[in-house]
């Protein structure tokens, strides 16, 4: 089967000449490796597209409430740190963008959320310093330079070595896991999920599941795979909390006995004196 050029060109770009010829032109549905690869590419592009909007409902919810109550600042700080490192690592490794593209969009959205959280807490100076630090770190880790030597060979140099960056990428595994723990504890203590977005939580869980498959199919890197496997586990816990606390509202604060207020003991005494 032949597709028009405007469909063939992007299809070849996504799954390659070999798999395009096998699956589209020859309709070979027994080519399991190409089928798995095509599924992985489709999932990867879907995750990247989803990553472009996954935190938008969370941003809207915070802006609408003018509050980030129930959203853990430490969770977002740790998650953003892991995202910046992972983005730099994948770029430097020249991995297919379909295997990490959403990290770029999530990083940008996390920076917006951090800025909003600190702004509504009246900490604008802290917001500027934290956001600037993350941007500087990303530039430092991802920047490379190429020099052409006398013999014509090209040498690539970086401020942070590939070995050091690989170590930092391995460190993102515990960082990512610990980034979920404060939010899980916050939900448990409050008995509700506050301004946490259900769309974001459930999409994160689905995306991490799909990322495990795409990593297994396209990237031979045990560090990245281990991170996605453990991240899926903790995202599952958050999704279960979201379902469990779905109709839970914020717990009202209790008025202590003896405090001044309508109907309290002090008010009763005042009324007795007036009658006397």
From TrEMBL:
Transmembrane segment boundaries: 126-142, 154-173, 222-246
Membrane protein topology class: Multi-pass membrane protein
Keyword Protein biosynthesis: no
One GO CC annotation: membrane
Key words, A-Z: Membrane, Repeat, Transmembrane, Transmembrane helix, Transport
UniProt keyword Oxidoreductase present: no
Chief location category: membrane
Region (Disordered): 253-276
Location(s), subcellular: Membrane
InterPro entries in the record: MannP-dilichol_defect-1, PQ-loop_rpt
Protein family (similarity comment): Belongs to the MPDU1 (TC 2.A.43.3) family.
The name this protein goes by in its record: Mannose-P-dolichol utilization defect 1 protein homolog
Organism (species): Mortierella alpina (Oleaginous fungus)
């Amino acid at each position: 089967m032949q597709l028009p050029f405007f469909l063939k060109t992007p299809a070849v770009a996504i799954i390659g000449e070999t798999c395009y010829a096998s699956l589209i032109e020859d309709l070979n549905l027994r080519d399991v490796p190409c089928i798995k690869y095509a599924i992985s590419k489709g999932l990867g592009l879907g995750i990247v597209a989803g990553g472009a909007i996954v935190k938008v409902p969370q941003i809207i919810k915070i802006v609408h409430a003018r509050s980030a109550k129930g959203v853990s600042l430490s969770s977002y700080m740790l998650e953003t740190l892991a995202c910046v490192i992972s983005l730099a690592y994948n770029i430097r490794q020249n991995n297919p963008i379909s295997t990490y593209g959403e990290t770029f969009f999530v990083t940008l959205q996390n920076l917006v959320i951090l800025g909003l959280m600190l702004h509504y807490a009246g900490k604008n100076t802290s917001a500027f310093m934290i956001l600037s630090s993350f941007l500087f770190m990303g530039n430092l880790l991802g920047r490379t330079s190429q020099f052409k030597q006398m013999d014509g060979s090209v040498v690539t140099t970086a401020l942070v070595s590939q070995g050091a960056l690989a170590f930092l990428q391995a460190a993102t595994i515990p960082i990512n896991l610990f980034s979920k723990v404060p939010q899980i504890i916050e939900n448990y203590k409050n008995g509700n999920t506050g301004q946490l977005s259900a769309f974001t939580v459930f999409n994160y869980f689905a995306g991490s599941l799909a990322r495990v498959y795409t990593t297994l199919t396209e990237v031979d890197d045990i560090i990245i795979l281990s991170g996605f496997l453990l991240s899926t586990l903790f995202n599952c816990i958050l999704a279960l909390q979201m379902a469990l606390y779905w109709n839970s509202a914020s717990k009202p604060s209790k008025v202590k006995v003896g405090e001044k207020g309508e109907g309290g003991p002090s008010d009763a005494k005042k009324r007795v004196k007036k009658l006397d």
